[in-house]
Specification:
By secondary structure, the protein is α/β, with parallel strands linked by helices. It has 14 helices and 24 strands. The strands form 6 sheets. It has a 4-stranded mixed beta sheet. A 4-stranded mixed beta sheet has the order 2-15-17-16.
């Protein structure tokens, strides 16, 4: 099994080009099922979750050709509506094929999703919303078995809780539903707006009519298009933290700074110097890191996917800091490993109290989920000596060429078997 060796105490300097967004690519790939024509996608990252989704699409009958970061998907012969457990178990985004399959065939059988063990991800929000479009469903032996006897029909749907996945599933499903659908209390993550742009380019009729309200007029068919996926804001945030924690000087390229203004604001508060340009950000880390209290929240709040990374930085702050995790109830699994490196972090329910002024010591470590794995790399980059990170298959689910990118800016890191 592969692992990473990280030799720390290095200041990162140089330029890093951010890849396309995994979290935007996955719902867009699911949405390609609506089409019977060719879809050309550019700027798609080469990460394991994308490969899993492509394998799932192929199992459903899609023809997929890939070249570097470009995909050409042809669904002219796509006829299956069964997504098996073996393909969905490692990735929660697999449930996103439910909406387009129901829109296209009025029936689907899709395995309940898997993914990182960072908390429950109930799909009841998806199912209750779909039922308002005319879907009847049952869960049997780990599968959602759903059908819409009269096809999908538009309706007014209010999400009781903001849910990224449910918002995406309903937008995709309602795009081919008869009549008009009004979705309220929607998630507004940039990746959702990228999905809406993609669908509108295909000929769908989707419009934001207020901050969290979407109006969708169903169409009968969609057209052939080319679409370039947005940048990965979580990857960008991770490298911003990497510069801050190593007192480095990095230029983060291929981004839209306004999309990550919350993260930039917090890093400025913590003491980093940040220079914003049109499609890039320069960050210069400060030796003195201030303390802060952070709550994770749906966009435009601070993202839960950067909670582990910012926690590592706060271990270096001058005073104690607090992180309140309000999205997932089991997302502090990296704490035990960070404490093994010398951190002093106490957790109480959904709160973590982080003692500052910590010098990380090198150690052999175990990654527990995607974002926890990269937080261990960040800590190891500051430790004076060699750290070993095991189970890096978690890391490969969401970061493209992370060793190459870090090596290019001065990190001493290598993958070993």
């Amino acid at each position: 099994m592969q692992k990473l060796e990280v030799f720390g105490a290095t200041k990162l300097k140089g330029q890093i080009k951010i890849s396309g967004s995994k979290n935007a690519s996955l719902p867009i790939l699911a949405a390609t099922l609506l089409s019977k024509k060719k879809i050309n996608l550019k700027n798609v990252p080469k990460v394991r979750d994308i490969e899993t989704m492509l394998t799932l699409l192929r199992s459903l009958g899609s023809k997929v050709n890939s070249k570097k970061n470009q995909l050409i998907i042809n669904n002219s012969k796509q006829k299956k509506n069964f997504a098996s457990y073996n393909l969905v178990k490692t990735m929660r985004a697999g449930i996103l094929v439910l909406g387009p399959l129901l829109a296209k065939y009025s029936s689907a059988k899709v395995s309940l999703p898997g993914g990182c063990a960072i908390g429950t991800r109930p799909i009841d929000i998806h199912l209750k919303a779909l039922s308002k479009l005319g879907v009847k469903y049952k869960i049997n032996q780990g599968y959602v078995i759903a059908n819409a006897p009269k096809g999908l029909k538009g309706n007014k749907i209010h999400f009781k809780k903001i849910s990224v996945g449910a918002t995406e599933n309903l937008i995709i499903a309602a795009s081919l539903a008869k009549g008009t659908t009004l979705l309220t209390n929607c998630a507004i993550e940039p990746e959702i707006k990228d999905l809406v742009d993609f669908l509108n380019n295909m000929g769908c009729k989707i419009r934001w009519i207020s901050k969290r309200t979407i109006k969708i007029i169903g169409v009968k068919e969609v057209k052939e298009i080319t679409h370039s996926v947005m940048f990965d804001r979580i990857e960008a945030g991770t490298y911003l933290v990497a510069a801050a924690i190593t007192q480095g000087n990095l230029i983060i390229q291929n981004i839209i700074p306004d999309i990550i203004k919350t993260e930039i604001k917090i890093l400025k508060k913590l003491g980093s110097k940040i220079i914003i340009k049109k499609n890039e950000v320069q960050i210069i880390g400060n030796k003195k890191i201030k303390n802060i209290k952070i709550k994770t929240a749906p966009y435009p709040g601070f993202p839960t996917d950067l909670q582990a990374q910012i926690m590592v930085l706060l271990c270096k702050s001058t005073k104690n800091s607090i992180i309140q995790e309000d999205i997932f109830e089991n997302r502090f699994m990296h704490v035990a490993e960070l404490n093994r490196m010398g951190a002093k972090i106490l957790t109480n329910g959904n709160k973590a109290i982080i003692k500052g002024n910590i010098n990380f010591a090198p150690a052999e470590l175990m990654a527990t989920d995607l974002r926890a794995s990269v937080s261990l790399i960040l800590a190891a980059l500051t430790a004076n000596g060699k750290s070993i990170i095991n189970r890096i298959y978690h890391l490969d689910r969401g970061y493209e060429n992370i060793e190459k990118k870090l090596k290019k800016v001065g990190a001493k890191i290598k993958r070993v078997s």
